Structure formats: C-alpha cells, structure tokens
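Bump. Still looking for Asparaginase structure tokens.
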Amino acid sequence: MILIASSNGAVGMEAGWAILQAGGSALDAVEAATRPVEANPDDHSVGYGGYPNVLGEVELDASIMDGTTLQAGAVGALRGFRHPISVARQVLEELPHVMLVGDGAAGFAAELGMQPENLLTPPAEAAWRAGLDGRLPEEFRHAQGQIMERMLARATRLATDPERVAGTVNFIAQDAAGRPASAVSTSGWAWKYPGRLGDSPIIGAGNYADDRYGAAACTGWGELAIRAGTARSVVMYLQHGYALEDACRAAFHDLGALGLPPEHCLMSMVALDRHGQHCAISTIPGRTYVYQSSGMAAPAELPRLIVPVTGS
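Sorry for the wait, here they are.
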C-alpha cells in the first residue's frame, strides 16, 4: 500500500492512510485525503479559502479516477461547495457522464444534499483586492469597485498573478489489492477569467490512472498540461516500457514542444507505477512531496527531482 501527495496534501494523509490500513479502496482513500485539504482555509490553492477569479468568486475544479475500471468523475467552475472532490466522486458513481461544470455541477451538488456556503475567506478576499489594486488601472473600476464586465478579458490579462499559478493538491494511492486511484483538487489560477478550467478536472491532462501501468497527477500551469496531455503521457510512456522516472522526464520533455520559454513552464508532478514505486518531479526548485507506504508509522516528506523543460 502507498499514498503519495503534493506537499500541501500532508494535512490529508492521516485520513487517506486510515482507509488503506483498514482495507479500504484506493478510490475511497484519495477522496478522503483530499477533503481536509479542501477544508483548510490556510491553503489558498484549494477549496475553502482558495483564491477567487477576477470578479472575486471562488470557483473550484476537481477530478478523481479509478485506475482499475478507468472510470472518472470531474467538476469544473463549481461555486459555493467546499468539497468538489466529493461531487466529482458522485459524478463517477451516479451519472453516465465524466464531467459537470458551472451551474450544472452546483445543481448536482445540491441534489446530493450538500450545503452551499460562501467560500471566500477574509484573507483570500484581502489578497484579491490587493492583487487587483496593484495591477489594474482605475479605468477598470466603477463606483462599487467591481471590474467592468465588458473589459474582463483585458482585466484578467493584467491581473492574473504568475506567482499564484502552481497551487492544487494531488493524491495517488495504491491499496492492498494493488488497485490505484488518483485525485486532484484546486481553486485554479488566482484572478482567472470566470469559468476558466485548468488541467485539474481534465482526465489525461492533470490526472490519469491505469492499473496496468501506473498513475500521474499534475500541478502548475494547467493550460500546458492540457495541451500536452501530461498525466496521460506519463502512463503512456510506462506502457511503452519506460522506467517511472524516465516516463516522468519524457512527459516534461514534451512540454518543450509548446514553444514557451523554459522559465514559463511551471509544472510539478507526482507519479506511481504498477509496482508501487513513486516519483515526484518539478520545474520549480524547492518543491517537495509526501508519501506513506506499508511499514511506515508516519508520512515522510522528500524533495522533488528538478527537471527543466527544454525545447524538443
């Protein structure tokens, strides 16, 4: 058994590991592990307290995948519900769809009996106001201080904060039966255009699991992972016989084909192969990840391998 996560997933490791130790499924474990992160108001990249879009609205994305059945569920641009991972899980379980977004996702959450709430905490709101004040000229505001809706695209380009791109939480688990599952949850890019989806809810981009080969989950600039199909690429390289670290490196190498300067390719990844070997890489120095496996009394935190993106 093993559970791995991005470093901000440390607060959820106990909940996820308890399920694995009790003989529960990897799918249950990654959902349970994600929920404490979504409820953590001090994590501004996920769930309650996450940074809002350019209008000050918190929009959440999440996905979950069962590596044994290849079933998946995802939600995007979900407002008013702090646990998008559990809504995504119920999409997987209850609907013939893979993804719901916006009002459809919120309506489904309400149908499940989940209670809506305001997800914008005072610290996140203060950061949003400070971020806009520091980037937008006065022409973008009217008397109430709201951004003019007809100018949202330009306002988003000016306000989007490159220092707040690389949030998100990832979990990958393999249970006692060898079944893998993966989960990703995020509030997305700070001050984003309303309705923007990154890679987190996109199966194959930010999240993928297949018990024949392995699993991978991403954080960082989600648009890049969408364009390159990064999580699925790792699993594909494993399918073609690559060792786990080599598969991760190859997927990062593919980002070079996108034609961006290397310093703009902000990306991190956790991955697991079918043998339970784990790996975490990043283009960003200083990033870590956490894991716990059979025989360990507590999770351990390790540095990620630094893998720069170069042109292909």
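The first strand starts at residue 2 and ends at 6.

Edit: fixed formatting.
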